[in-house]
Write a structure and sequence with these properties.
Order of helices and strands: HHEE
Largest sheet: 2 strands, antiparallel
Strand order of the largest sheet: 1-2
Distance between the termini: 76 Å
Number of domains: 1
Strand content: 5-15%
Length: about 90
């Protein structure tokens, strides 16, 4: 069981905690007072978001190639990664 003053000191120590990666991001401004656990969750979510954006970027770079490849195998439709768009006919 924690003593009340020990718990208060632990909370104060957590309030001043800044992760190492935060030093490399001065453009973020003044950091909020977060606990170590909140900083860990924030760092994890940020890392996952960065990889997700990277995947979307790579997909957009390869979309023309994927579309051309699937159009030759599927005939008149341009399908890519589950998103299908039927080819426009000349008789609109």
């Amino acid at each position: 069981m924690h003593r009340p003053d020990a718990h208060g000191a632990e909370t104060e120590r957590d309030a001043r905690y800044r992760p190492l990666w935060f030093r490399f991001a001065p453009f973020l401004g003044r950091p909020p007072a977060l606990t170590r656990r909140q900083w860990s969750v924030l760092g994890l979510v940020s890392l996952v978001s960065m990889f997700e954006q990277y995947d979307v970027y790579l997909f957009s770079l390869n979309l023309a190639h994927i579309s051309a490849s699937s159009a030759s195998t599927r005939g008149s439709s341009a399908c890519s990664a589950g998103w299908c768009a039927p080819a426009r006919s000349a008789r609109c």
